[in-house]
Amino acid sequence: MGTWRLEDLPADRKPVGCQWVYDRKRNEHGEVIKYKARLVAQGFSQKPGTDYNNDGTFAPVMRFETLRTLLAFSAVHNLKLRQFDVKSAYLHGRPNLLLGIKISQGNHIVTLSQTHYIDALLEKFGLADANPVFTPMDVKVKLDNVMEEQDNEGQGEKNDKVTHRYAALIGSLMYLAIGTRPDIAFAVNKLEQFMQNPRPIHWTAVKRVFRYLKYTRTNKLTYGGDDDLLNTDFNIFCDANWASDASDRKSISGYVITMAGGAVSWSSKKQTSVALSTAEAEYVAATHVAKQVLWQRSLFTELDFDIPTTSTIFTDNQAAISISHHPEFHSRTKHINIAYHFLRDLIAEGILNTIYVNMRENLADLFTKGLPRELHEDMTYRIGSLSG
């Protein structure tokens, strides 16, 4: 195919080593359909500026938000999907499996699922026979103070082998959390904070996430389906859980952006500084989602899709809305990092707006804390994660 040519080694140069890497390509059912081999260069032996140009070497990757947004758009307009695989002899066809995600399409509906990946993880980590549970986190269990308490009791000795296995579990969950399972995003974000020295209670909590995945293994992130969902409007929700981390009293920011009835973008993240009030934590969370909304709007503009003049962010804190609309609240905001105040400029320019939504209707609540079963299932359904 003319993908390489043999050359003489330049003078005073050492060849870069190489190694064969083998893999199995699987279909949407997890069955092996192809054996793959790739000869890879040991790039770690190269020197920047000598063996390659720092300014011109990069590896472009696809953002999951881009994929999900385009799939939601295709559901609204009933566009037929095609996949192009340049490396496999330039074949193209319907995308049944993309990046380990099964994609199914019907009339004005697109679904994403990773059932086979979940099954493989349960088998790999010996949890295939675990008892299923209805929520990813037990709301009664507090994880933050365990580190200090057990250190005082002499149970804090670190075990590298245990830590490595815990990290492997978290890494496997993370791919689900950023791909098709927003319902476990908060749990994974919380549990990854203990990777340096996990304790028994953290192991139990991680296994609970897998038990929840077993219960919901066939869930599909769904776009379209019902007529009232067939539009390209963004529904943007943000929330914060003030001073919820007992170890450092930092707050959790969460947001979710839905389109065509399904989540296209979401985040659960600890804030970098301590907020002095609920209003401040909510204001920081609104700024966090504002950056993502700007990116979503730029994506639509680049693709020549219609966008509204103003995008509305829904939040359940009236004080945060007042701060974002009225700069005169100086005494309440003078200590807030100036980086967060660009939200005010976006509102003043009419690009964004913040509107109050009742706490029960704020879908971002799912990304800031563990929820009881009824509320968790309601929120999960409303962001488009439907049982298969």
Helix and strand topology:
Blueprint: E1 18-26, E2 32-41, H1 64-77, E3 83-85, E4 91-93, E5 97-98, E6 101-106, E7 109-113, H2 115-124, H3 146-152, H4 160-179, H5 185-191, H6 200-215, E8 220-224, E9 235-241, E10 252-259, E11 262-270, H7 278-302, E12 311-315, H8 318-325, H9 330-333, H10 342-348, E13 352-356, H11 373-382, E14 385-386
Parallel strand pairs: 9-12, 12-13
Antiparallel strand pairs: 1-2, 3-4, 5-6, 6-7, 7-8, 8-14, 9-10, 10-11
Helix pairs in contact: 4-5, 4-6, 7-8
Describe the protein's architecture and organization.
With 388 residues, this protein is an alpha+beta fold. Among the domains are: 115-215, no CATH class; 229-386, Nucleotidyltransferase, domain 5. It is built from eleven helices and 14 strands. The strands form four sheets. The chain has a five-stranded antiparallel beta sheet. The radius of gyration is 23 Å and the shape is globular. The two termini are 42 Å apart.
Keywords:
11 helices, alpha+beta, 388 residues, five-stranded antiparallel beta sheet, Nucleotidyltransferase, domain 5, globular, single chain, 20% strand
In summary, what is this structure?
The protein has 388 residues and is of the alpha+beta class. 33% of the residues lie in helices and 20% in strands. A hairpin with a 2-residue loop joins strand 10 (252-259) and strand 11 (262-270).
